[in-house]
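Hi,

I'm pasting everything inline rather than attaching a file, because the server keeps stripping attachments. The sequence lines come first, and each chain or strand is labelled.
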Amino acid sequence: MAWRAALRSKAVISGLLSCSSHGRLCASPTFITQRNNSTSPKIKVDYDQTTGVAVMHMQSPPVNSLSLDFLTELCISLEKLEMDKGCRGLIITSNQPKVFSAGLDILEMYGKSPEHCGEFWKVVQEMWLKLYGSNMVTIAAISGSSPAGGCLLSLTCDYRIMADNPRYTIGLNETQLGIVAPFWFKETMVNTVGHRNTEVALQLGLLYKPAEALKIGLVDQLVPEDQVFTVATQTMTKWLTIPEHARQITKSMMRNPTIDKLRTNRDADIQNFVSFITKESIQKSLRMYMEMLKQRKA
Amino acid sequence: MAWRAALRSKAVISGLLSCSSHGRLCASPTFITQRNNSTSPKIKVDYDQTTGVAVMHMQSPPVNSLSLDFLTELCISLEKLEMDKGCRGLIITSNQPKVFSAGLDILEMYGKSPEHCGEFWKVVQEMWLKLYGSNMVTIAAISGSSPAGGCLLSLTCDYRIMADNPRYTIGLNETQLGIVAPFWFKETMVNTVGHRNTEVALQLGLLYKPAEALKIGLVDQLVPEDQVFTVATQTMTKWLTIPEHARQITKSMMRNPTIDKLRTNRDADIQNFVSFITKESIQKSLRMYMEMLKQRKA
Amino acid sequence: MAWRAALRSKAVISGLLSCSSHGRLCASPTFITQRNNSTSPKIKVDYDQTTGVAVMHMQSPPVNSLSLDFLTELCISLEKLEMDKGCRGLIITSNQPKVFSAGLDILEMYGKSPEHCGEFWKVVQEMWLKLYGSNMVTIAAISGSSPAGGCLLSLTCDYRIMADNPRYTIGLNETQLGIVAPFWFKETMVNTVGHRNTEVALQLGLLYKPAEALKIGLVDQLVPEDQVFTVATQTMTKWLTIPEHARQITKSMMRNPTIDKLRTNRDADIQNFVSFITKESIQKSLRMYMEMLKQRKA
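And the predicted assembly:
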């Protein structure tokens, strides 16, 4: 079992939710405001009308944290691509070195009002709903580490190609921070690696090295680091030869039961998240985690 | 992942639904009529009362297409065997060289009235319901290729032994033809190889070589081509040592949730199939596919 | 497939439900009475308040049969530990040589009144409900064979470490005795090894050697026989570093759907068991099995 190896490795206690700024500025409300005013796009979309393939480059330094702004931008881009009938495939990748995405931005959950937390969670749901149910062929070109929400982002895709570098890890490691992955994170993982692997991975908040991730099926293919994008493009070409309508209906048939569970429970799920994350004990966990991140930086 | 290998191989685009006649006669209504008048049995049943084991030899040239006649004959034979309390085991195999069954007969779906399509689909359901829920021990002796409906037929059995010949393939490749495998095909496959393997296999319409099929659990055992039937017989002997009543109840417990879903939705499922298959775009796909088959013959 | 190996091995027909006394006394009502009066504990609990880890040593000669008394004692111990907030981990192991637990005690089901059978089944349910849903980290240190109910006991734990001795076997082999594993045994196994492995294992009542059990995921780790307990202790230490509250909620999320199915159907499940086990044909199977055990002893 790959998670036994993962449990032994130090990876378990590294990586996790992310902090969109460098450690020292993490808790600064001023910084947040500046960030909101930022106009440089956090995601660059290249869409090639000839091939019908769009590429989303995540480019939000330092670690592509999934902030409210980032996710909003992601959802808007997705909606545009989805509505363009010519766009049939989407490759998601990162322009940041060593990281695909470090996951949900803690700053959106720490010291924030219930309203803000609720608004944030809604866009996390939206991202998942749009991607897991996308009509496009979606491929994650995982060019670096991909913990927590970054792993979820990968799991929504149809195919996952990861850089074969043992320094990188991937996994839903929320438990390590004292946070619980919600049922739809869980079901997405069960649909990918099965019930038992998920039970262990989520209980322990495991992060897997690429070889371990491949073994349990958390990623589909490992390639040398400099070939991740090329192989993603080649794979996309193969997937696009499949009759489109039949493939889309088949995808829906496989994924809609899970999607419907969230769709019919969005408000309750938001309520659940907000009341959990605003608990004093959880806020304390988040603060300790951010301080740990700062110390690592220093 | 075996489906990565399958995706790379050319197998993906070969094989598929079948055509009960040789290419040139495919679209000929006259031929259909002749076929309906045929009195030679498409299935030969050998039942050994000493052992309690029946063998169904599929012998409908050239490729054991699952036509309305073929399936009707299959269902009648099944019902007889099921009602004979002495018959405890069933081996399904093919007398045609190189093929187990090439799947549903396109001629039953192409250029036919909605009524005919509905009648055909009903007997496809009936075959699945009878076999997936059979009280007998059922073993598929897969002596050749087994795409689409042929794969489904194998999946209904309790155990699958396949000829270890890399020229043969097996899989639910309907998507390749623009057709969607219905939910009960999907669930039968999920029950056998899990959710993720099914998601990829059905989206891409993958056909697996024997070694790949074994790897994901689509078949249970590979043996040299000339030993498929012998090993099936030996395996049957072992299975028949198990206390029968407990084994039957256990089998029901595992399979009834899936069976019940179709049983309570048969009419809707027929409606769904008929309205899909009679669409102009799907009929066009079927015609193109048959022309492709003809060209290959020529 | 490991169950193919298991099917070939002789293990299939050995082991099974157990008999709490030595063969010759099995059917003696006198003995039963004596047993009920026994005051020596069948389970020794060592609880180390420093580490927060309790160890349950099963010590009911000869084979830790899960009798009414044994299970009652187990449930009481579990309840005490669960209520002690300081107790965070539980290791279950056996003090009997060569066996973890031989499973449900046939004497509680053979020649007994429906009332007795019902009372017995209720405590079997209770054991499963308490363990599968425990807030503690639970680890099975499987120091010997573990058929039927012994396997179920292991499957309720969070992690299974087994002695790497090919003489030992583990599995839900009820079918071999003509008995049907109930739906919650089945679901616990599906949650651990998946649908297809469960379908074959339960239909055939397979017992797996350690290497085969590891291969399908029925156990998580094999270690030399004399290190089972040490490794269990080390593993526990790692699991206890995980933030507790998040781990517990995650565990519930994974297991509650299965637990709820039994919780809302306990009476029907008892009725079902009682009417099945008191059937003349099943009682006959049990008698034959006990006679087979006696002959083996002699």
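The CA atoms of residues 172 and 192 of chain C lie 13 Å apart.

If the labels don't parse on your end, tell me and I'll reformat.
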